[in-house]
Amino acid sequence: MKLWEFCDIVKNGSKSLPLIGAGIKTADDVRKSVELGSEGILVASGVMKAKDIKKMISELAEPFVD
């Protein structure tokens, strides 16, 4: 199953939001997830391992506010 297919199924077949978590480490990863239909992202190690956590969160949030 392709990511966009998953997002489409979730959006049209439930009241849930499609969230993507695996492999999200950069703003480009977030942009691609949004392009494919994600309504949000999940992050853990990508943020927790960052030297500047606030900066990393800001960068990852940028595609949602563009």
Give the secondary structure arrangement, pairings included:
Layout: H1 3-13, E1 19-20, H2 27-35, E2 40-41, H3 45-48, H4 53-65
Helix pairs in contact: 2-4
What does the model show?
With 66 residues, the chain is mainly α. The chain has one domain. The chain has four helices and two strands. Strands 1-2 form a two-stranded parallel ribbon. Strand 1, helix 2 and strand 2 form a beta-alpha-beta unit. The longest helix has 13 residues. The radius of gyration is 12 Å and the shape is elongated.
Structure in a nutshell:
By secondary structure, the protein is mostly helical. The protein has one domain.
- In terms of per-residue confidence, which ranges show pLDDT below 50 for 5 or more consecutive residues? none
Q: How many domain modules?
A: 1
Helix content: 55-70%
Number of helices: 4
Q: How many β-strand stretches?
A: 2
Q: What kind of sheet is the major sheet? A: 2 strands, parallel
Question: Which geometry do the CA atoms define?
Answer: elongated
Radius of gyration: 12 Å
Keywords for this structure?
6% strand, elongated, 66 residues, mainly alpha, 4 helices
